[in-house]
Amino acid sequence: MKYKVFIGIDVSKLTIDVHLHGIGASKTFSNEEKGFALFLSWVKKYSKQSEPAEMIICFEHTGMYSIKLATYLNDIGIPFAMLPALQIKQSIGIRRGKNDQIDAQRIAEYAWLHRETIQATLLPAKSILKLQSLLTLRNRLVCDRGGYEATWKEQKKALEGKEHKGIFQVYKSLIMNLTVQVKKIEEQIKAVIESDETVKLNYQLLTSIKCVGPVLAANMIAYTHNFTRFATWRKFACYVGTAPFEHQSGTSIKGRTRVSSLSNKQLKKLIHMVAICACAYNPEMKSYYKRRVSEGKNKMSTLNVIRNKIISRMFAVVNRGSCYVDLMKYAA
């Protein structure tokens, strides 16, 4: 669709700074529903000839600060593009100086320059948004617990005697409390999955794959918006940082093919752990890993192939709508 009005918004904790491209008008509003309503009324004064569907509102994805605006625009049916900040930053070239109004102007310029290719963002279902929040909280609690466990273990080696018993009891209590909270979060995650039939079905399909457990399955559903965000598993592999890319230029630079550091590192970590588990407990992956390494292939490269195999299988079972079949059991 061809848009006529291009609006850039710089979202912060308390305010949103708005800029209308071509008109040059800028204004600041509060980052709440009342401010959003005033913002749209202000925009209509400058775009009386345009329908709401002919405008595109572009802003950076700033997590919980931008989700309120995105939800508001989604509910009233106004197109918006919520983009990664790095994508906009790398596209504007060399610039000096910044403030909220300048950032809003640059975002509006980005929307206008990419008017032929920019696509409106579609928010996932509310159950997916809730699942994302729960998984983020679970990951934070697990990381905190791991930090306390590591410190407790090291201090038990270094500090001896009854005078340090109180310190160890505090660590033990913290770890036990965090474990209880993690279990409560996992129960809520399970309840969200059970509440949506399509999410529940995809969850069951994913966990039918060997070594793919509840945590990876839930994260896959959350980050892929229940497998509607990526057209193919290869695009997802690029997003998650397991797709290899060439590093070559002219005759002087002939580097190794390697994966990009621009990735979803949390999801990549989970897939990597599953790949390691598959190499140890999945007979098919174990034999493949040993055979490829014995041929002189790099171990990390082989592990990355297995990561991509797991990704392709997850997308395959969801697209096919049937559980994973272990063909190795039927091999002659």
Automatic annotation (TrEMBL):
It comes from the Bacteria. GO terms for molecular function: DNA binding; transposase activity. GO terms for biological process: DNA transposition. Residues 204-290 form the Transposase IS116/IS110/IS902 C-terminal domain. Residues 7-145 form the Transposase IS110-like N-terminal domain. This is Transposase.
